[in-house]
Design a protein that fits this description.
Elements (H helix, E strand, L loop, with lengths): L2 E10 L2 E11 L4 E5 L6 H9 L6 E6 L2 E2 L5 H6 L2 E4 L11 H16 L6 H15 L15 H13 L5 E5 L7 H18 L2 E5 L3 H7 L2 E6 L2 E6 L1 H5 L2 H11 L1
Parallel strand pairs: 3-8, 3-9, 6-7, 7-8
Antiparallel strand pairs: 1-2, 1-4, 4-5, 9-10
Helix pairs in contact: 3-4, 3-5, 5-6
Bound molecules: adenosine-5'-diphosphate and magnesium ion.
Length: about 250
């Protein structure tokens, strides 16, 4: 099992945001976490990536206990994540943003004899190509459309050469067209690179078209888990989603 979350609980001064959650993600799987606003999706992501330390429970990556490790340590082990809000330097160009991320990664993996500059340039261009931003390479990042900014963020995340991608609401705030393009891009890149994907998403069309496994969170706890078909037909899931709409 690539990622294993075991009985994780997160209490914020007595408020239980994550309640005894267990979750497994296999290598190569496309797994999705859904649930109403405030269900604890982002908190669970933060517990997995080291941005929060659980009050109870364990997180394992490659069978290694990573509970309470620093985010950069977990990132180096091969876990890449994007945030619900974009995380780019708005005054740098698109190229510079990706280059900074590539540099941050290569510094850790190369020695001083490697001709870093050319390699970094080549890697940066290759990432821009992957995420469809070659034409925008010299644009100031802050001026990009929202959809392009999210593509850039994906490029930045991929620069650390992750094995698993954690995407928190990757299509939040996107137009329907941007959503379609962005999901197609994420799916293509994940398959090409053999990446494992764990994402949260509010658009059910996206969830059911991409996810192989869905975990439903409700009030911090796992309400249901299974294939899209199982989850769609689960009476508890139908109740909370219908309850929300009512
Ligand atoms: P989701 O991403 O599913 O919308 P969150 O994980 O952001 O939900 O939040 C789950 C619950 O935990 C919410 O009630 C939220 O207010 C609470 N929460 C999240 N982060 C904190 C925090 N740092 N301190 C206190 N409460 C928090
Ligand atoms: Mg959230």
């Amino acid at each position: 099992m690539l990622l294993r979350v075991e009985n994780v609980t997160m209490s914020f001064d007595g408020f239980i945001a994550t309640n005894n959650v267990s979750l497994n993600v296999e290598k190569g799987q496309m797994a999705c976490i859904i649930g109403p606003n405030g269900a604890g999706k982002s908190t669970l992501f933060n517990l997995i990536t080291g941005h929060l330390t659980p009050t109870e429970g364990k997180v394992y990556f490659h069978d290694q206990d990573i509970t309470g490790q620093a985010p950069h340590t977990i990132c180096q082990l091969g876990m890449g994540r994007s945030f619900q809000r974009t995380n780019i330097f708005p005054r740098l160009t698109v190229f510079e943003n990706v280059q900074v991320a590539v540099l941050a990664h290569t510094r850790k993996t190369l020695n001083f004899l490697t001709p870093t500059k050319n390699m970094v340039q080549a890697d940066t261009f290759s990432l821009l190509k992957d995420v469809g931003l070659v034409d925008q390479a010299n644009s100031v990042s802050g001026t990009l459309s929202y959809g392009f900014q999210k593509q850039l963020e994906l490029g930045i995340t991929l620069a650390s050469d992750p094995e698993i991608l954690l995407l928190d609401e990757p299509t939040a705030g996107m137009s329907p067209q941007e959503t379609t393009n962005s999901i197609a891009l994420i799916e293509r890149i994940s398959r090409e690179r053999g990446l494992t994907l764990l994402f949260t998403e509010h658009d059910m069309d996206v969830v059911f078209s991409v996810a192989e496994k869905i975990t439903v969170l409700h009030q911090g706890a796992v309400l249901a888990e299974g294939t899209p078909e199982n989850v769609k037909n689960d009476p508890d899931v139908q109740r909370i989603y219908l309850g929300e709409a009512a």
